[in-house]
Amino acid sequence: MSKPNSKAQKTQIIEVLKQDYFPIIPQLQRNWTAKQHEENRLSRSLAAFAIANLADAILTDAANSIINGENDNGIDAVYFDRTNNRLWLIQAKAGNAPNMGDNKKFCDGIRDLVHKRFQKFNSSFSRLQHDVEDALDRNGVKIVGCNIYLDSSLGTHVVNDLNQLQDELNKFDARFQWQDLNIEKIYGWLTTKQENAPIEVKLTLENWHCLEQPRKAFYGLVNAAELADLYNQHHKLLFEKNIRYYLGTQDVNLAIAETVKEQPSELFYLNNGLTITCTKVILPPGHKQESTKFTLEGFSVVNGAQTVGSIASVFNANGAISPNAKLLVTIIEVGTQSDTIGIEITKARNTQNTVRDIYFAALDPNQERLRQECMVSNIVYQYRPSADNQDAITIEQAAIALACFSGNAEIIVAAKKNLNLLYKDHYSTLFSNELSGITLCRYVRIFEYLDQIFENSRKAETETRRKNFYQHGRLFILNVLSRRYKPLINKPEVNLSQDDMTELSNVGIELAELIYTLAESQFASDEKGYLAIFRSLTDVQQLTSKVMQELDCRLG
């Protein structure tokens, strides 16, 4: 499985630049090739992207900061952030890190700007000159020179020249600094934007009590109608620390909804209640235990998502809920420290009833990282089970695709025996720290595409044994394909191009025919069915060896 790499990150960054910045950054009137135009436009977009993120500027202001072009004096964008007293000077390269020559132009341009030698700049700079003069004449303004580029690091000589410039400009006053904005920093900006901000909730507890040690906790009654209102305000954000979202009309949820509608006063007795964690609990002055409106920062329902969702479904269907519908709530203040108490509470409170192993993947920080990386390409990856999975890649889909392309016979056999074994025995291998969101998305796309091709082949077959092969041998075929066609499988693009689909279709069908022929020669005399073959580690290992030998001979 491929590690997150700069090539994959670069692909996603360029996607974002084209989508968000190309519409407001037109092509220059130059007699260039299409490739030269695109490279220039990407670099100018990257400069605007830097301003938007460094100064929290709106996109149009960021685009207006660009002075890149003839006689730009080595500076691609200039922006005075009056709020934070920062004058941002950007050199952008949508490719390799700037070399010594590029950086010398940048450093010389900064010197000219600081010393107000504005005649050395182009006409695009003149519209920003007033802002620059304001910045240079104002006390306390920090001048920040930034190299932003789609590479891993600056060269030693470039760093030395920037440090020399910093020492020179700070001889009498510490007014200049420089920043290295490499591809990791850029990608971090993109993924951070996909984070779900913690929510603050106000919740009324009746007849509540408090525990002070070993950590603060409150328990009391809450009105079901208030929970329905919270759900309609925040939806899935209520359950960000839970192992699953609301799963919709399952039997247990229908039973909860029925109680809320028909026996509201019995809800307290028939329901386990909710467990809520938060980073901070705030009580108003003069609070009374009979009834208090709590302010809960960093709120999450860690146990009881099905209860809250079911209550909301009744409220939304009927427009109201009886005031007699109340249930027990426990609120635990876990603070903001990065200890594991929140995870321990979530895990413990969700093991008292039967819960699938896959649900606990939601407690793995890697899953949230993968979700954010997928969202950079506007692909929804949902690692918490939910009733709403439309257009999303689910963790179940990801697991089976990752298993197919793991190159591990034991994992393939486990997937064929029982999918739950993937989460129970092989989770850390499939969802490793090295897995990237772009790889996850691509593997799922390849799996879905070829799975449909093999399904069409199964339907088209008239001979029972060949039908069974296409039914039960798909994971094995994909595993062999991933071993032999790694460059195709591991391209840095999330989506499949037409060329990708053509090649995958051809090699998939070709491999299927080869594998079927070899499998028949090995197992037909034993009258062994394909379901049994692909559930046997011994058979799978033997067949893999035979197939790989045959492929080696054909290539040799």
From TrEMBL:
Abortive phage infection protein C-terminal domain segment(s): 239-457
Highest taxon of source: Bacteria
InterPro entries membership: AIPR_C
Name of the protein described by the UniProt record: Abortive phage infection protein C-terminal domain-containing protein
